[in-house]
Structures are given as C-alpha cells and as structure tokens.
Amino acid sequence: MPDPGPSPLQSSLPGAAAHFGAHVLGNALAHASRGLSALPSGPAFPARAVPVEVPVEVLVPGGAPGGDVARQAGEAAVAVGQPRPALRRILRGPSGLGTESLHWARDEDPPAPVEPAAPAPPAAGNPIPGLYYHPIPEPDPVRVEEVSRRIKAWALDEVELYPEDWEDQFDGFSVGRYMVACHPDAPTAEHLMLATRLMVAENAVDDCYCEDHGGSPIGLGGRLLLAHTALDPLHTTKEYHPEWERSLHSDAPRRAYRSAMEYFVRQSTPSQADRFRHDMARLHLGYLAEAAWAQTEYAPEVWEYLSMRQFNNFRPCPTITDTVGGYELPADLHARPDVQRVIALAGNATTIVNDLYSYTKELAAPGRHMNLPVVIAEREGTSDKEAYLKAVEVHNDLMHAFEAEAAAVAAACPVPSVLRFLRGVAVWVDGNHYWHQTNTYRYSLPDFW
C-alpha cells in the first residue's frame, strides 16, 4: 500500500507526531526504571524530553515475551545527557531513500539543548484528577467540520442508521472531532472517513444489540454472529446466498457494518482487512461475555472483568491506524508478540478511560451497568470513591506499561513502519482521552474530589 505522506491540511501534525518520541521513547523508561507501580499523583507532563539509553543487545529482533520486555525496559538505565548514536537514530526516525514521509519531526542535526515545550491550550471539560494522560493540540477544525458533514450524510442517506429523534445523540457523539483527534496523520478526509464509518457502525451495534436502544443480552449471540457476516462474508451455496445478502440490509447495524467494511476493503490491503475482522471478532466475544454475566447476574472478579475488557474494548480502532495513515505495517511485524502486547495495553488503557468518564452516565441509566469502579467496589468491599480512585490507578498502571513496552519495541525493532505505527497508536491513545475529557454532552465526573 503506497504511503502518500502526511496531509498538508493538518497543521498540528508535527507536534502530535513528535509527541510519541517525547512521552513514550523519552519518558516511559524513566517510569519503568522506577517501577511501574510508582504512579504520579496527577497528570505528568515532562518539561523536556528525557534522553534514554536502551540496551538494544538484550532486546532480540525476534521479540521477547511480553513480561520479559517490560522487565528489560524496567532495567534500562536512564541517561541524562546525549543518547547513544543508535538510540538517536530511533528517536529521530527512519532515514534514507523513500522514508521521508515516515517521520514528521526529523532530527538530522546534532541535538541542541531541549527547551521546555509550550503547554497545550486548555481543552474543554475537566480531566479526571490523578489520571495519567497527555494533552494534545485541538483537532484541525476544517477537517472536523468536513468529516462531521460526511459522516452524517453517510448515516442518513446511505445506511439509514437512525430515526430523527436520535439526531441530537448522533451530533452529541462528536465523532468527527473524535477521529480527527485520534488520526492526525491521515493524508485525506477520505482516509479519516474509513475510521469514522467503522466507529459509528460499531456504536450502532453496541447500542441497538447490547445497550441503550433496544439492546438485550437475550439472543445477543445470534444477532452478533449475523452482523459479523457483514464484515467477514458468508461463503455458501448459490441457493442460500441471496437470503444472506438480503439480510445485510435488514437492520441499521448490519447496514452500517456492510457499508463501512466495503469502504474499508477498497482502501486497505487484504492483510489489514483481515486484521480488522479478527479484532472485531475479539470485540464481539467480549460483548458476549458481558451479556452472559448480565443474564446470570454474575458479578465478576476484578481480574475477570479486566479479561472481558481486553476483548470488549477499543482495540479495533488503534489497530487500523496504519490504514487511516495511508501505509501498512506488514502482517509479520504486526503479529510480533511484543507489538501485540503494545496494542493490547493501548486498548485496555483507553477502555478504562471510557469506564471512568462514563461512570456517572452509566449509574444514571436504567439497569445495572458493569464498569471497573463498580466491580472493584463490589468485589473488594470498598466505597464508591475508593473504588473509583483504585480504577484510576489501574488505568495509570496500564498506561505506564504501554509506554514502556512501546519504547522497548521501538528499540528492538526500529523499522520505519513499526516506528510510525507505534506513534500512531500512542497518538490514538491521547486522542481518545481528549475526546472523553471534552465531550461534556455525554460525560461528567463524579463528585469525589
């Protein structure tokens, strides 16, 4: 898949792309060397990029088991001063013929003293006190407007996704701002639309099959299976194929899945499309586990809940960052165990962000909603406030692990597409937090501080 390079429309891109080098490749191993349990009392924003030395020789190219990577990252020495030449090459990104578009913030000259970065302007909404996150520049308003216009036209005219009385909720979701924040390296608005259609389709399935708009755990498995065939087509006999094809238009979630996937397949490579199908199967498995617990009124242990959330989470979104960016992380590199661990940790951390920001919204909704603070309170016998603050710590642990693992992968496998993919995932994590913090239409914080 050719790499069309960064979009000239996205003026905030250099800062967002360089962000990965600053807060992951620079700061993560500093956290790791102190132990992943050493959590900040509030959001930690490094005043300067901290150069680090990573013992590359112990991080073998074939990848180490996830736990070993974290251990090796934690044992890496933090060097205050100039990094070694090998690490400088990783931090500044790829070089050579054909790699110009793979890094947006080059360091071709000898490093100069790093000045403190200008703080990002305050975003709308309040961040959760004590939550570890990284602020981002405001998304390009021109792109936000264009993507918002296109996605609404798609939802209304192409797939007839929702009735008129749902329009306020659709607008309040602010999906255009969400996707522009998460994919600042998308070369065109159409690349952004790949992620935006899929995000809207996934939420339609969640709402209509599982939760707010007629969803139910009863019979969910059958509904999800049939919807999944809109992503992973049925191969059957000529006699029964027309009936399946007609079924793809029978309800809004399947119409949305079918259309969004058709656009995605036209723009992606076969391996990228298959990767996405696999991650959506993971998502649907998580939906089914949560539904089974709801049907049997089972309160999972905290570790069981976190297991479910590793599947019922945002993973399908950051894993397509290369398709949206207009390039491809080859399948053999994507499948490396250490890369898979990075993606899993990113998905887990971003999903706990959702648990935390949607906490009051879910408590106010009818029925019993499971989220991490609720499960901790029930299983560990804590107050609601103590459980919520414990969930913040869980998120912070996951974020520090994600950053340490990403830094270790970057050192072990400094391939241009790997480095760009790691940056894309890190920027997605930051954009996801930005959207949750700023979406005051949907979310408000509990009164725990």
Describe the protein in words.
- The chain has about 450 residues and is mainly α.
- Helix content is about 60%, strand content about 0%.
- The protein is built from 20 helices and no strands.
- The radius of gyration is 22 Å and the shape is globular.
- The N and C termini lie far apart (about 50 Å).
How would you briefly describe this protein structure?
The protein is mainly α and 449 residues long. 58% of the residues lie in helices and 0% in strands.
Key descriptive features of the protein:
449 residues; mainly alpha; 20 helices; 58% helix
Kindly report how far apart the N and C termini lie. Answer: 49 Å
- The class by helix and strand makeup works out as mainly alpha
Radius of gyration: 22 Å
Poorly predicted regions:
4-22, 28-114
Largest sheet: none
Number of strands: 0
Mean pLDDT: 80
Strand content: under 5%
**Helix fraction bin:** 55-70%
Order of helices and strands: HHHHHHHHHHHHHHHHHHHH
Number of helices: 20
Per-chain topology:
Blueprint: H1 13-26, H2 28-33, H3 66-75, H4 85-92, H5 141-158, H6 167-173, H7 175-182, H8 189-210, H9 220-228, H10 241-247, H11 252-267, H12 270-296, H13 302-311, H14 321-325, H15 331-334, H16 337-357, H17 359-364, H18 372-380, H19 384-412, H20 416-438
